[in-house]
Write a structure and sequence with these properties.
448 residues; alpha/beta; D-Maltodextrin-Binding Protein, domain 2; 5-stranded mixed beta sheet; 11% strand; globular; transport
């Protein structure tokens, strides 16, 4: 993966702490909202585009078709970008830096909000007050976020203002072959790494499990490496960036987390682990060649498909991620919908975002894709829980999840993490050296 340089980021904007729960703490160029399109400029009606990653379910197009049938003068055209998040981000950045109006509504990874807002690439959105008080942007266009999970709301804000609406959430879960564990005499999923390794050893003594790989989390040199590093280090009690906004990698806890990835890749993962991306991991699990896997919720519906595409349909379950001494910590993922500051027909764009993020659309999306919704009530809906038994596990994971480093210069930060962690898991550097080098690289990027 190539390194994507920040474009137009104010030099005085500091990187927020990885564990910070509010983006209002980000430093900047004097406060207030970034210059550019604000809520007063959400005008214009007519055709728009929706820029997103691949829709493998076909559900997005169904929802767009339903919108288009009701809005003949405000048609939406879907523009699909590549699978790899870094490639998506690069294309969106290229469009923004040329101030092109080709992109209207952007489907952003949650960690991009600060970067895009700080660079003045997003229109500010009118948000209704979450509890009491009066809104500074009162009116019918306000976006009501009160029904959404609090953790997801934070991901759409920058300096206390709303720039993106939570569309889907995400948190890593442990997928495991429940059928094989039961045959091996194991009644519960593992809560610790050692319990997971012990379970693997027992399963691989079975005729059905002798050729299966034990475990997989992504360790390729992409955004997924940053996610794996956040989860491993945080589960060990460490962090990448501390509450003061400075890197915190020269700690025993960070070393323990990275050494887990190094040793797992060496002894427990598929031989081709460093070449497998999210979809590659999904196919490996669905082929029946994997006992345990760290994966996102979207895989659930695909792995349970009864069309012959999955050899593990009805044979797996999900649980919280394990950690060194007990349950681990998941990364907070998901996507937010934002309006390009350079788009035409922003009023139509705002209405389309409300449509896609409403409870009815999120319910349909959950049923079709098993992607995590942001509407809290769907996690407790008996019909949804019956169809997706993992929802209570996922809700708890999201509530306790930690984000990746929230950074205005996110491209530089994640590139540094990916590079050093890749060197560690491939044996190019000892874990301690990789962490020391990463500490040095992140220092200037987080300097106040």
């Amino acid at each position: 993966m190539w390194r994507i340089p920040p474009i137009g980021a104010p030099a005085t904007v500091a990187v927020c702490a990885a564990l910070a729960l509010s983006l209002t703490a980000c430093g900047g160029d004097g406060g207030g909202s970034p210059e550019g399109a604000g809520t007063a400029e959400l005008e214009g009606r007519g055709p728009i585009t929706f820029v997103t990653g691949k829709d493998r379910s076909g559900n997005l197009q169904k929802q767009v078709d339903a919108w288009n049938a009701e809005h003949p003068d405000e048609q939406v055209r879907v523009i699909e970008l590549p699978d790899e998040p870094n490639d998506q981000r690069q294309q969106m950045m290229q469009n923004a830096t040329t101030k092109s109006d080709a992109y209207s509504v952007l489907n952003l990874d949650v960690v991009w909000t600060a970067e895009f807002a700080a660079n003045r690439w997003l229109a500010e959105l009118p948000m209704a007050p979450l509890s009491g008080g009066s809104s500074p942007q009162a009116g019918k266009d306000e976006i009501d976020l009160s029904a959404m999970l609090p953790a997801t709301i934070e991901t759409g804000q920058y300096r206390g203002r709303l720039y993106a609406v939570p569309s889907t959430s995400d948190a890593g879960m442990l997928y495991y072959r429940e059928d094989l564990l039961k045959k091996a005499g194991i009644s519960e999923p593992p809560k610790t790494y050692q319990e997971m390794w012990d379970a693997c050893d027992k399963v691989r003594k079975l005729p059905e499990g002798k050729d299966a790989d034990c475990y997989f989390t992504e360790v390729n040199k992409t955004e997924s490496m940053t996610i794996s590093a956040v989860e491993a280090i945080t589960s060990a009690g460490g962090s990448i960036i501390g509450p003061d906004g400075k890197p915190t990698l020269n700690t025993p806890q960070a070393k323990q987390g990275v050494e887990f990835l190094v040793n797992a890749k060496k002894d427990r993962m598929p031989k081709e682990a460093v070449t497998l991306d999210t979809e590659g991991g999904r196919r490996h699990f669905q082929s029946g060649k994997l006992i345990f896997q760290r994966q996102w919720p979207y895989q659930y519906a695909l792995a349970n498909a009864d069309d012959g595409s999955s050899k593990v349909a009805g044979k797996f379950a999900v649980a919280p991620l394990p950690g060194p001494d007990g349950p681990g910590v998941a990364n907070l993922g998901g996507h937010n919908l934002a309006i390009s500051a350079f788009a035409k027909n922003k009023a139509t764009s705002l209405d389309f975002i409300k449509y896609l993020t409403g409870e009815e659309a999120q319910r349909a999306n959950l049923l079709a894709t098993s992607q995590a919704p942001t509407v809290a009530a769907l996690y407790d809906d008996p019909e949804m829980v019956k169809k997706f038994p993992y929802l209570p596990v996922l809700k708890k994971a999201i509530e306790n999840a930690v984000p990746r480093p929230v950074a205005v210069k996110y491209g530089d930060v994640t590139a540094a993490i990916q590079g050093e962690m890749y060197d560690a898991v491939t044996g190019r550097k000892p874990a301690e050296k990789a962490l020391s080098d990463l500490q040095s690289k992140l220092g200037p990027l987080t300097a106040q």
